[in-house]
Amino acid sequence: MNSDIFEPKILAFCCHYCAYASADLAGSMRIQYPPNVRIICTPCTGRLEVEYFIKAFEQGADGVLVAGCLEGGCHFIKGNLCAKRRVNAARELLSEIGLEAERLRMVNVSAADARPLADYIIDMVQTVRKLGPSPIAADATSIMENFS
Questions:
Q1: 19-33: buried (b, 16+ CB within 10 Å) or exposed (e) per residue?
Q2: Is there a contact between 147 and 38 (Cβ–Cβ < 8 Å)?
Q3: Residue 90 in contact with residue 53, Cβ under 8 Å?
Q4: Positions of E strands within the chain
Q5: Cα–Cα distance between 23 and 72 in angstroms, integer?
Q6: Distance between CA atoms of 6 and 126, rounded to whole angstroms?
Q7: Which is nearest to 56 in space by CA: 21, 19, 84, 93?
Q8: Torsion of CA 82, 83, 85, 90, to 10 degrees
Q9: More exposed terminus of the chain, fewer Cβ within 10 Å: N or C?
């Protein structure tokens, strides 16, 4: 790998029941996705608040991916719909402070969607790579330090 190529630090919040299970399945099936993505398992994406996304950028993430259950398939009824609203609100905030909204994305997958999840992750990394390092992340020195 060329050391001159920017490798973004992506933080992925994954629903325990679907997206995290899908990531686990991807590993079992040896489906590869970029190693510069760190997954945090959450009970439900509906538990995530806007501040978590902003905090991820403040602490060094170049991009944030939220991966929840398929719409209509949330184990907590409407958790993924709450997450979708919060992600959209956070994207607006990012735009207002001059950060590209594309750095934050939500996707919905089932527990069996190992390949689609890997593809979403690959696309997210490519998108953020094109955007370049987050200006916020450039000043951060905390949780994302363990990426190297």
A1: bbbbbebbeeeeeeb
A2: yes
A3: yes
A4: 10-15, 37-42, 63-68, 104-108
A5: 20
A6: 10
A7: 93
A8: 140
A9: N
Supply the pTM of this predicted model.
Answer: 0.89
Q: Is 53 helix (H, G, I), strand (E, B) or coil?
A: helix
Angle at 76 between CA 75 and CA 81, to 5 degrees: 105
pLDDT in tens, 46-97: 999 999 999 999 999 999 999 999 999 999 999 999 999 999 999 999 999 9
Q: Which amino acid is at 96?
A: E
> Cβ contacts of residue 105 below 8 Å, gap of 6+?
63, 64, 65, 66, 87, 120, 124, 127
> What domains are defined for the chain?
10-134 (3.40.50)
CB atoms within 10 A of CB 88: 13
Tokens describing residue 76:
């907590």
Query: Phi, psi (5° rounding) for residue 49?
Result: -100, 160
What does the pLDDT look like over 96-125, one tens digit per residue? 999 999 999 999 999 999 999 999 999 999
DSSP structural state of residue 65? E
